[in-house]
Amino acid sequence: MQPQEKGSHRCYGENVVLPLVSGISRAESKIENYYEIPGTASKHYLERQQIRESNARSYPRRISMAIREAKGIYIKDVDGHTYFDCLAGAGTLALGHNHPVVLDAIRDSLDANLPLHTLDLTTPVKDAFVEELFASLPAEFARNAKIQFCGPSGADAVEAAMKLVKTATGRRSILSFHGGYHGMTHGALSLTGNLEPKQAIAGLMPDVHFLPYPYHYRCPFGFGGEAGHQISSRYIESILNDPESGIVTPAGMILEVVQGEGGVIPAPDDWMREIRRITCECQIPLIVDEIQTGLGRTGKLYAFEHSGIIPDVLLLSKAIGGSLPLSVVLYHKKLDKWTPGAHAGTFRGNQLAMAAGGATLRYILENRLAEHSDIVGDRLLEHLRQIQNESCCMGEVRGRGLMIGVEIVNPLAEKDFRGNYPTYPQLASCIQAECLRRGLIIEIGGRFGSVVRFLPPLIVTPEQIDSISEIFQASVKAAEQQLLPILSQAS
Ligand SMILES: Cc1ncc(COP(=O)(O)O)c(C=O)c1O
């Protein structure tokens, strides 16, 4: 391990010095907590929340706590329990909670009497933000780029992008992917693979066609690997060129470079290049949804850079607001066929988010946090693969940078046609609960909720990665001990 400097840490395997984010901390190299969840004080708030908030609330059902304060990678609940936060606002908090550069940017904006709300009028803060954002893009993309500020959520960017490509092409249908997640508004939900939230909603956006994503472990074609992704791209090419495929030339194709909510499934770079070639040849605008992967999470500033492709449309939200709500659509100017006011919205001028987002982007670039994400992400993957060797329930460990997932399987069930065990969502939930009791917040996603997900902030240190892995190891063991005997009795 690299030497530790006071007030900083040397990025593992790299000659980069990163300042340590100080604040709340916890004993880091041993598991010393076993919390009652929810604690007594949290229970009070959770009961009130349950009475007053909608039945659609989601995270409090699995992460049962009321948060008192947060700093860096740590969250402290109202019972005084401290947790490693490997959910980080569903990937929003690139620099963790309350990073000094983010707080300074917000404070400076407030002290400067900056207008907090400007519709889409411009300001020096907005101008500087756009300048920095464009400078962070590959030159080939930036040279022809236009930007549309949307309503503040990721789904708002997705909605805007659909309107953009439909207007530009005059076409009506959209291609999306199995396992894709693009948000919960009507249009964005229509593009999302997960059927559960769609069940109760009649009349979703029509003309959406779903295509097979290259999911190695559960390849729909039964191959996986190179063969699996080649069949996917050949199938897509064939339906776009077959006059009897039933799919008219679409207005656009939307995809994630690493599917997040779908179960942390990275698309192979070769597949991405094939998809770009096919969409170029068929003149279909390619919309890359980097709402979760954007700003360094996967080991590159933008995940599409791994494959070297250039999208036509790029969607950013989450990290780009530096913890505050902000969402943008960046696109090739040839698509700018919108008439004045064609896409409006009251909340497109969040100045604090632009200041915080600009500071976050600068910090990520100056401190090479994308490379750091790659290095510490590999370290976490290595730990998880070691834990996998001792476990019978960790079907696949996968991910890119600091976007990592473990697919949890049932080793007592019959294997599928590819020789893999079926998913075991109850065990995934049990692992999540055991992690929480030991002071680690992780998320669940993927098919049937069977993938445990790690999305720590990019400032996570190698030492923290080691502690997180230790907690995970103990939690997997505890969960297996609880559930496997029950399963074996039943089978
Ligand atoms: C890839 C992707 N697209 C879109 C969204 C929707 O963003 P929001 O929840 O801000 O509407 C998300 C949210 O997790 C996402 O991960």
From TrEMBL:
Keywords: Aminotransferase, Pyridoxal phosphate, Transferase. Coiled coil: none annotated. Pfam families: Aminotran_3 (PF00202). Pathway: Amine and polyamine biosynthesis; ectoine biosynthesis; L-ectoine from L-aspartate 4-semialdehyde: step 1/3. CDD domains: OAT_like (cd00610). Signal peptide: none annotated. It comes from the Bacteria. The keyword Transport does not apply. InterPro entries: Aminotrans_3 (IPR005814), Aminotrans_3_PPA_site (IPR049704), Dat (IPR004637), PyrdxlP-dep_Trfase (IPR015424), PyrdxlP-dep_Trfase_major (IPR015421), PyrdxlP-dep_Trfase_small (IPR015422). It is an enzyme of class 2 (transferase). GO terms for molecular function: diaminobutyrate-2-oxoglutarate transaminase activity; pyridoxal phosphate binding. Its cofactor is pyridoxal 5'-phosphate. Its EC number is 2.6.1.76. Belongs to the class-III pyridoxal-phosphate-dependent aminotransferase family. This is Diaminobutyrate--2-oxoglutarate transaminase.
